[in-house]
Amino acid sequence: MGNMQDASLLLKLNRILLAGHAVMLVVFAALILVGGYEYRWGAFAASSLSVLVSWAICMIGARRAVMPVLTLVGDLTRENDRLAAGKPAQSVTTELEFPFNRLVESQARMRSRVNEREQRLQTEFERLSAVLNSMHDGVVAVDRQEKVLLANATSRQMVHFVTGEATGKPFLEVSRNWLLCESLRNCLVTGRMQRREIQTADEPVRTLDLRASCLPGSPPQGAVAVLRDVTELRRLENLRHEFVANVSHELKTPLAAIMAYAETLKMGAINDQENNLNFVHRIEEQAKRLHQLIQDILQIARVESGQEVFHIVRVPLHDAITAAVAVQRDSAEHKQQTLTVDIQESAVVDADEDGVRTIIDNLLSNAIKYTPAGGHVTVRLATDGQQARVEVEDTGIGISAENLPRVFERFFRADRARARSMISTGLGLSIVKHLSQAFGGSVSVTSQLGEGSCFVVKLPLGE
Prior knowledge:
- The chain crosses the membrane at residues 16-37, 43-62.
- It catalyses: ATP + protein L-histidine = ADP + protein N-phospho-L-histidine.
- It is found in: Cell membrane.
- By secondary structure, this protein is an alpha+beta fold.
- Residues 1-7 have low confidence and may be disordered.
- Helix content is 55%, strand content 17%.
- Strand 11 and strand 12 (452-460) form a beta hairpin.
- The chain has helices at residues 2-34, 37-84, 100-133, 153-158, 171-174, 178-190, 231-266, 276-305, 317-334, 353-369, 416-420, 428-438; strands at 138-143, 148-151, 194-199, 207-214, 222-229, 312-316, 338-343, 348-352, 376-384, 387-394, 442-448, 452-460.
- The strands form three sheets. It has a five-stranded antiparallel beta sheet with strand order 2-1-5-4-3, sandwiched between helices. A five-stranded mixed beta sheet has the order 7-9-10-12-11, with helices on one face.
- The protein has four domains: 1-127, no CATH class; 135-229, PAS domain (Beta-Lactamase, 2-Layer Sandwich); 235-309, Helix Hairpins (Orthogonal Bundle), CATH 1.10.287; 310-463, Histidine kinase-like ATPase, C-terminal domain (Heat Shock Protein 90, 2-Layer Sandwich), CATH 3.30.565.10.
């Protein structure tokens, strides 16, 4: 306000000086007309001096009046340039009156709105980043130059991004997954969604379901890919196909034997007094095998699907082991095997009694089947911290190191030639694993080929 008052006073002073100068010019003109030569030069000199003084006073006044305006314009320009560049702008102040003060107020409102919008955008970006990084699916977006716009944490792990900031860099600089890059490129070129399954190059190999779509625009302004890990799904599908194939094969074998023996009896062997009972015995044996297979398949299906109804009670493992040994003792004696029970201390678990009996019975049956005549089978019971530990050890044929990780798979048999000569469904150990896990426990095995195996079941002790 002070600058405006100074400028106003200077303007008034300039007007007075100009008026005085005009009067002086009139006087000097009269003197020149009535006076002599000396008067003329004196009047000219006085007039020139008056003009110079007036001009100097006007320039000083104009400078003092204009400089605050120029300073204000410079400040506003500098801060607006900072706003345009996305940098924080400082507030601008002025003592000038209307209209300059209104210009400063307008710039302050604009700066406030820009800051509010930047804050909202930052909040939305952080919210979007949190959502993307919490997703189990990977998300990668690129622009038309295939430079990364965004990539959530899951996608960085899936396709193994290099360490460091990826945004703004060409995709192939931050990830060497050529198949993903190719899908994004095809999407940008064709404008159509791309879908395929790709595999990661690094161990462990993962199978990813890839769907790439274009970002809006004509031509598309970029592409976004969604990656879903379907490794486990594909593994389960393969297991299902393998399970169906194995079930078909296992059902076909006893059925074919039953049909063959029945056809033989039908064609006249029924009158063969020496062999007809043998054929009937074989049919009965295969029927039992078929019945056991169906029962095992139904049980493992119920356990895996969670439809098995367990009656959880306090189960003394001593009683369960004694009952299972009583059932299997005849089979061991038939092969002249020594069946030993070593119960070091009593233990009680909270589980389904029939389920626990099935676990021990299957392990004992498996040990007796794969132990040669005259061998030894030992059942031990002990506690290990808060767990009960049941061991079934044999001096049987053992399991090779390459087959050891697969012994709990359905229908897996380490010695298929031997398995065909006995009633075995190949599901017993798989049932043991699923029942142990259902009761909160686990099962493991150690083995040496030709020396025997030791299966260990751990179950939580009852409270």
